[in-house]
Amino acid sequence: MSVRFAGYAAIFDVPDRGGDVVRAGAFAGSGPVPLLWQHRGAPVGRIEQLAEDSRGLRVIGRVELPELAQLVRDGALGGLSFGYRVQAARHGRWRELERLDLIEVSLVAVPMQPLAWVHAVAPG
């Protein structure tokens, strides 16, 4: 069993739990990345579409690991996050992430960005 999902791995201009703020354009030029579980291990599916829009980094993916697919389908798991290297940032009240090297997108139990969640699920 697999499921497809859509959601946001990053929300622009909203501080996360660690004090970072991602700015629009930070992901410009990002290429394909793997879909991981909790930022580690082997891929658990694949990212089918990845693009910035006016809200943040929108992701459409497919979870192929049956146990995780079931949790996502049932709404028991839906946090999204991303792994990155900072290419450019400004420091002030928050660390403003202006340009990032995107490494991966992960399904997570508790996202660093409280608004980064799966918002739609469909059979795979």
From TrEMBL:
Sequence ranges assigned to domain Prohead serine protease in this UniProt record: 5-119
Top-level division of the source organism's lineage: Bacteria
> What GO molecular functions are on record for this protein?
peptidase activity
Give the signal peptide, or none: none
Q: Which SUPFAM superfamilies match?
A: Herpes virus serine proteinase, assemblin (SSF50789)
List the Pfam families: Peptidase_S78
Q: Which InterPro entries match?
A: Peptidase_S78_dom
Which controlled-vocabulary keywords does the entry list? Answer: Hydrolase, Protease, Viral release from host cell
Q: What does the entry give for GO biological process?
A: proteolysis
- Any idea what this protein is called? HK97 family phage prohead protease
